[in-house]
TrEMBL record:
InterPro entries: NAD(P)-bd_dom_sf, Sacchrp_dh-like_C, Sacchrp_dh_NADP-bd. It comes from Salinihabitans flavidus. This is Carboxynorspermidine dehydrogenase. Residues 5-137 form the Saccharopine dehydrogenase NADP binding domain. It holds the Pfam family Sacchrp_dh_NADP. Residues 141-390 form the Saccharopine dehydrogenase-like C-terminal domain. It comes from the Bacteria.
Length: 403
């Protein structure tokens, strides 16, 4: 068991496929398929040059379930790793069920015509995967992904229960562009411009996007303004750890990024509904994506570090009362580029996708059903983070966060 079919050939896929090729004892055969085959060929060429491993490449429209089923059967894939876009999640889950293949992704399903980040569409597949004896792992990137594994590790080793958790995501990278996103611009802007929602006292509290700002001194990155926003792990963490009283997500943005995002929103360039332009129907945010730099293509220019982690407070396992722990990774853009030719955001997403797939292939997470990351044993995943390029640090803080 080790045959892997990766779908999508963007920035995240570039990093994940290189790291898979570096672990040939786990990933015995790799096929990379995407809408534009030349992008798969570029990744395969880089893998061959850097790692010496040969990757099979194919053209595939992931919305075509029959074509995906045929490719899974032809490759004999044990696991399909979905690194395309969230719009393809359900079609790829359908294909896995039909062909008898495990599934993993890094972002929850979103309908293309509605920016709605909810797990219910994918959780509805739980029984089908159980009956088929197949495993589906949802959200195996960094956030969501590692941030949930961090929470589970704290719950297993430090805290008997988690009363409150803050996920803190800082990108201190600079790529010299006036405005660019860290990953797929369309998905990124839909996420950033959505209402900020956090879990508190058993309900969702909603505030307008980008209105709640706090300065935080990030290890390795330094002081940065971070903004309260909604992120999908808040839903799964508050569901699977029902004792959580408050769960929030924060991400750093520079003033220039916010200014551009707001102007683009105000002039209608981030609209996701079709509009007529010179007799042709266009979706403004898709047109904007065409104009903006490809985040994967900025890797060579990006300098600085990213730091992502959790601060969690709860009852200590050792019975000494309440404790607060900060657990995080610091990732250097230039080191990622040297190793695999990616920037840190692609790397911090692609490496956990590889590690999550490895957990299924090794049998650690091969449990039938549909799982979020915090539901699975964290220990081997955490060990692999340390050995596969994303070492983590954990330290006790004096008390709960004061922001
Ligand atoms: P990119 O836009 O760089 O890559 C997406 C790839 O998917 C492209 O190669 C694209 O093809 C391909 N694709 C799109 N539609 C189809 C289709 N119908 N059939 C086949 N292939 C298709 O995105 P990123 O690499 O930046 O992001 C990939 C995923 O990772 C996204 O879902 C994103 O939300 C997620 N992500 C998760 C993070 C986390 O920490 N959990 C963080 C960052 C990203 P083409 O080249 O032809 O356009």
């Amino acid at each position: 068991m080790g045959k892997t079919l990766v779908i999508g050939a963007g920035g995240v896929s570039h990093a994940a496929v290189h790291k898979m090729a570096m672990n040939p004892e786990i990933f015995t055969e790799i096929t990379l398929a995407s809408r534009t085959k030349s992008k798969c060929d570029d990744i395969a060429k880089s893998v061959k040059e850097r790692v010496g491993v040969t990757i099979r490449t194919e053209a595939l429209d992931a919305m075509d379930v029959a074509a995906t089923v045929a490719l899974i059967r032809d490759t004999g894939a044990d696991i399909l790793v979905n690194l395309a876009l969230p719009y393809q999640d359900l079609k790829l889950m359908d294909a896995c069920l039909e062909a008898g293949c495990h599934y993993l992704d890094t972002a929850n399903y979103e309908p293309e015509d509605e920016a709605k980040f909810e797990y219910h569409w994918q959780w509805a597949y739980r029984e089908k995967f159980e009956k088929a004896g197949l495993t589906a792992i949802l959200g195996s990137g960094f956030d969501p992904g590692v941030t949930s594994v961090f929470a589970t590790w704290l719950k297993k080793h430090k805290l008997g229960s988690i009363r409150q958790i803050d996920v803190l995501d800082a990108n201190g990278g600079d790529n010299g562009q006036a405005f660019a996103t860290n990953f797929n611009p369309e998905i990124n802007l839909r996420e950033v411009l959505a209402d900020a929602k956090h879990w508190e006292g058993g309900e969702w509290k909603v505030t307008p996007a980008m209105t709640h700002k706090v300065e935080f001194d990030f290890p390795g990155v330094g002081p940065k303004n971070m903004y309260l926003m909604y992120h999908e792990e808040l839903e799964s963490l508050s569901t699977h750890f029902p004792e959580i009283e408050r769960a929030r997500f924060w991400m750093t943005f520079g003033d220039e990024y916010i200014k551009h995002a707001k102007v683009l929103e105000n002039v209608g360039m981030t609209r996701i509904d079709p509009v007529m332009h010179n007799g042709v129907e266009i979706i403004p945010i898709q047109f904007l994506k065409t104009l903006l730099p490809d985040p994967g293509g900025l890797a060579a220019l990006t300098k600085g570090k990213a730091c992502i982690g959790d601060i969690a407070t709860g009852e200590a396992k050792d019975g000494t009362g309440e404790q607060t722990w900060y657990i995080y990774n610091i990732c250097d853009h230039e080191e990622c580029y040297r190793e695999v030719g990616s920037q840190a955001v692609s790397y911090t997403t692609g490496v956990p996708a590889m590690i999550g797939a490895a957990q299924v292939l090794k049998g650690n997470w091969a449990r039938p059903g549909v799982w979020n990351m915090e539901q699975l044993d964290p220990d081997d995943f955490m060990d692999m983070l340390n050995t596969q390029g994303l070492p983590w640090h954990v330290r006790e803080l004096d008390g709960p966060v004061e922001f």
